[in-house]
Design brief:
Layout: E1 51-54, H1 65-68, E2 75-79, H2 87-95, H3 113-118, E3 126-130, E4 135-140
Length: 156
């Protein structure tokens, strides 16, 4: 038998989302959607900054679990790129911040001048941030793949 509220042959209904204010708006509490006739999903717990999902040794971090439980209906946005190309800045601007804000308050920390001079990565492993609209943003360290390695010259 088809689920309650649906007729045989009718496509199953999906939750209704409305994205607004790039994660800065307040989402309404769960309520009955008059069109669909079912409860809307509650927004995830509001995050103020990114959290480590995978550490620099590629191990899962326990601190992320509380944000990921019961979060199965999400959109995931990730970014890969060379060191210092602005991955963290782009992810911060897409998820919660505006260009007018102080970059030190961005949800994903951009590479500092000191780190740039040392040639190190600001992001290690994978950091994540979840918006009230259930969009998961993943900021990654530079992958250890040949395509991302700096050019090298072999002298014989």
């Amino acid at each position: 038998a088809p689920p309650k509220g649906e007729k045989e042959g009718q496509r199953p209904t999906q939750p209704v989302y409305q994205i607004q204010n790039r994660g800065m708006g307040t989402a309404a509490p769960a309520a009955m959607d008059p069109v669909v006739g079912q409860a809307k999903l509650l927004p995830p717990e509001r995050m103020k900054h990114s959290i480590k999902l995978v550490d620099d040794q590629m191990n899962w971090c326990d601190s992320a679990i509380e944000y990921l439980l019961d979060q199965t209906d999400v959109l995931v946005v990730g970014v890969l790129g060379l060191q210092g190309t602005g991955k963290s800045m782009v992810m911060s601007l897409l998820s919660a911040n505006t260009p007018e804000e102080d970059q030190r308050t961005y949800v994903f920390r951009a590479q500092s001048a000191e780190m740039k001079e040392r040639g190190g990565n600001q992001t290690s492993g994978i950091d994540f941030f979840i918006t009230q609209e259930r969009i998961v943003f993943l900021d990654t360290q530079v992958p250890a793949l040949p395509a991302f390695a700096p050019p090298c010259h072999i002298l014989h």
